[in-house]
């Protein structure tokens, strides 16, 4: 992050700062790692909570030309900011919407035979092949064609002649666990799938395997196109390891009040935690309605998460509530009403906070609430 911002706007309880320069730098870092493969950008879920339009602007400026989203509504937002970009919709083609996709130059990622047939029918009606990606499932068992279905599609010239298949993709299940054998098995199955679509019949078809974790797992997984998501936004790429990327978000909340709590007294709902010594407790203006998960609460039985003041940790005390949380500042006499606390940022790394919540960086980023004062630092 750059120079400190002014005090949090008093109309808000907390401030979310999004560093678009760091986002752009992360994309350039990843693009350099995978060259000559292309580096796309996954901007679904409002660009992981950073605001899709702002993220697309920053990424397009530094060279991103291919974007992946989950839904057509997100694709339209990308198209509005990057008219010349390739936009792939990961959740496929909903029934009855082929004409809308074609009209707005959105390429569905097709993972079932009915989707493929619908897209081919639309292409015939329009009299031209329509761009798409094909998704082959290699072990995640979520979306995607089976290898048998992929073989049937590849052999069906009635269908394939109507399709402009740009990318063949699969999605890794365990790439964030470096020693997990599932990744090698999936890579082998994907190689079988890729062989079904020879370049002679499918010229220019790109193969895409790697998500954020896959980029760092094995260079062979880079193939022709990588699809980073969490890594772009400063998320971890390997279980239990700090992120190698620049942080993109910083979350701060105002101290509303500092109060004295007598030794043995409890703090928060349910009297879940009692302080062991006379304590100073700061009440912050953020809670689970802001996406800071209640599972980061503390109790007499288990520690919870923490915030930071100038890099120094202040542990959460008791249960988080909808709009408030309490933290122990007994050893921080300078903390007072109006002091900003860092909830995510220096002293409160995203990976550490996710761990305290019992979840992953992805969920923390995409859960960040709507009530924040949002500030973007431009690339």
Automatic annotation (TrEMBL):
The keyword Lyase does not apply. The active site is at residues 44, 269. Keywords: Isomerase, Pyridoxal phosphate. Its cofactor is pyridoxal 5'-phosphate. The keyword Metal-binding does not apply. InterPro entries: Ala_racemase, Ala_racemase/Decarboxylase_C, Ala_racemase_C, Ala_racemase_N, PLP-binding_barrel. One of its GO terms (molecular function) is alanine racemase activity. It catalyses: L-alanine = D-alanine. The modification N6-(pyridoxal phosphate)lysine is found at residue 44. It is an enzyme of class 5 (isomerase). Gene3D superfamilies: Alanine racemase (3.20.20.10), Lyase, Ornithine Decarboxylase, Chain A, domain 1 (2.40.37.10). Its EC number is 5.1.1.1. Substrate binds at residues 142, 322. GO terms for cellular component: cytosol. GO terms for biological process: D-alanine biosynthetic process. Pathway: Amino-acid biosynthesis; D-alanine biosynthesis; D-alanine from L-alanine: step 1/1. It comes from the Bacteria. Residues 248-377 form the Alanine racemase C-terminal domain. Belongs to the alanine racemase family. Catalyzes the interconversion of L-alanine and D-alanine. May also act on other amino acids. PANTHER family: ALANINE RACEMASE, ALANINE RACEMASE, CATABOLIC-RELATED. This is Alanine racemase. It comes from Methyloraptor flagellatus.
